[in-house]
Amino acid sequence: MLIAADVRAYICRDPVDMRKSIDTLSYLVEPLLAQKPASGNLFVFVGRDRTKVKCLYWDRTGFALWYKRLEHGHFPSPSSLAQRGFTLAELNAWLEGIEIPAREPHRAVAVKRVS
């Protein structure tokens, strides 16, 4: 799955039935995430017990669906990420089990000189 670095990811705060497939998940994007399913963004759905995740993505020619099931443990709560879009780096960290705070990352600084 090749995804551009500037793609934003959006996670559904509510648990989703992991038996749902591409069509049903794509229908849930607008009412649950207030986004267009074919926007090119990545949409993350988490199962009730937080051991399963599905990521839905439109890649210009059709939808792609990525599925991960943990053998032990749970994914961190999606509530802190559900309030905003996040980067693919944050998504990768979250998928590895790192709790992502709801704070903004450090702001970029325009350097005029180095002392």
Automatic annotation (TrEMBL):
Q: What's the short name of a Pfam family annotated to this entry?
A: TnpB_IS66
**Domain of life, source organism:** Bacteria
Q: Which PANTHER family match?
A: BLR8292 PROTEIN (PTHR36455:SF1), PTHR36455
What name has this protein been given in UniProt?
IS66 family insertion sequence element accessory protein TnpB
Q: Which organism is it from?
A: Paraburkholderia podalyriae
User: What lineage does the source organism belong to?
Assistant: Bacteria, Pseudomonadati, Pseudomonadota, Betaproteobacteria, Burkholderiales
